[in-house]
Amino acid sequence: MRFNKVLNVVDCHAEGESGQVITGGVGYIPGETMFDKRVYLETHKDDIRKMLLFEPRGAPWHNANIILPSNHPEADMGYVILESTEYPAMSGSNTMCVATVLLETGILPMSEPLTHLVLESPAGLIRVRCECKNGKVTQVRFINQPAFVYHRDKPVEVAGIGTVRVDIVYGGMTFVMVEAKDLGFAIDPSEAREICETGEKIKRAAAEQLAVKHPINPDIPGITNYSLTGPLRREGGQLISKNAVVVSPGRCDRSPCGTGTSARLALLHARGEMQVGETLIHESIISNRFYGTIEQVSQVGPYPAVIPAVAGQAWITGLYQMGMEPTDPYQQGFTLTDVWQRSC
Ligand SMILES: O=C(O)[C@H]1NCC[C@@H]1O
């Protein structure tokens, strides 16, 4: 064996959404903050993302996270998130995978019944509370960076669909949000392909027609995610709603989406439909759940914001070493539009 690169991989998923955690093999990544390291990886080491996420090693539904030491005095560890078409500033399902792997593989010490961590994501510090029992992390609850609404109830012209009413909301990633009833969807798993096809079209149209710039970090990516939102209902005093998130290049998030849940809380709060201290049970297209709570209100530049807390669970599924042989023709991996929908 003569690999020119070997990565230590812990396979993990949060409510069905893949989040590989790379615990070694990447080497030193320069940068003061995790956002700087994210930029360095994107501009100098994108071959690592392609090796992990593109074929023949990856698949459209894979995400990965590189664990890196943080320079922030409060942080226990940092991580950079890699997805099929971008390096997001933040990701909820990936944060749950990172916290679970750090504790369950012994990289950081676990104390039962609760372990508190401070992780530096590219979006900033993320405070995490892990419920732990018999060596297993049974819930990861993180406090996200502030979520806020850029645009409310804006018409967007979408080729082949017509005028669609959208909201544009930041929750760590930037979402175009559409009510399922406006497009006639029930958010049933049988609709997944059609939801992705319309979602990608709406995402592209919204990104062309509505400007966004994060007031604190203008390099945070613009509209790259789509959330199709189901009706909000109260059952026994409990707020509950379904959503389907379409992750680029066009597949459903298997989890309820942590950044999408954060964005949903900001939108519901802006609409007066959810108050500080309330919790939303947010369901995915396959009906698993995250729990989103509005911790407090905040302000981001000109935008009123909320501080979201999101809780869910992750499970490790394997540990292995991924290698790259120097004669392998797919050093940069490849994508094919049969399952990737568009080339990345
Ligand atoms: O939970 C989330 O925020 C995400 N899941 C995959 C895509 C998003 O990063």
From TrEMBL:
It comes from the Bacteria. Gene3D superfamilies: Diaminopimelate Epimerase, Chain A, domain 1. Pfam families: Pro_racemase. The active site is at S91 (proton acceptor), C257 (proton donor). One of its GO terms (molecular function) is 4-hydroxyproline epimerase activity. Belongs to the proline racemase family. This is Proline racemase. The lineage of its organism: Bacteria, Pseudomonadati, Pseudomonadota, Gammaproteobacteria, Pseudomonadales.
